[in-house]
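Trying the structure run again after the queue cleared.
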Amino acid sequence: QVQLLESGGGLVQAGGSLRLSCTASGRTISTYDMGWFRQAPGKERALGAAISQTGRRTYLADSMKGRFTISRDNAKNTMYLQMNSLKPEDTAVYYCALDQSFSRILSGRAEYWGQGTQVTVSS
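Done. C-alpha cells:
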C-alpha cells in the first residue's frame, strides 16, 4: 500500500515563497511518475505540474511557468514543488499524485493520491 504525505503548506504573503514536499512510503518512487494538483475554493482539482520517473520530463501549467519548479529526489522518495512569487490566486489545497503512467498523471487519473496541504497567499 502506497501512502503519500504532503508537507510545507502554510500562510504566506503575496510575493513570498514556499516549498512543498511529497514523501512516499510503502513503495519506491523511482519507477513512478508524479504530479502536483491543486484545488482552489469553489473550483475543480486541476493539474499544476508533473515529473517523469527520472526527472528528465516535466510539465508545468501556464499559470506556474516562471514561478514554480517541480523536482524529485528518488533517494529520499520525495517530490518537491518550489513556489516563488506567490499570488493570492495560488491559494488552494495542493495534492500530490503517483502513477506508473505519465499520461494518467496528466489526465488526473493517477492511482495514488495524498491528502493535501493547504497553501494560503494573502494580498
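The mean pLDDT is 97. Worth checking whether this holds up in the mutant runs.
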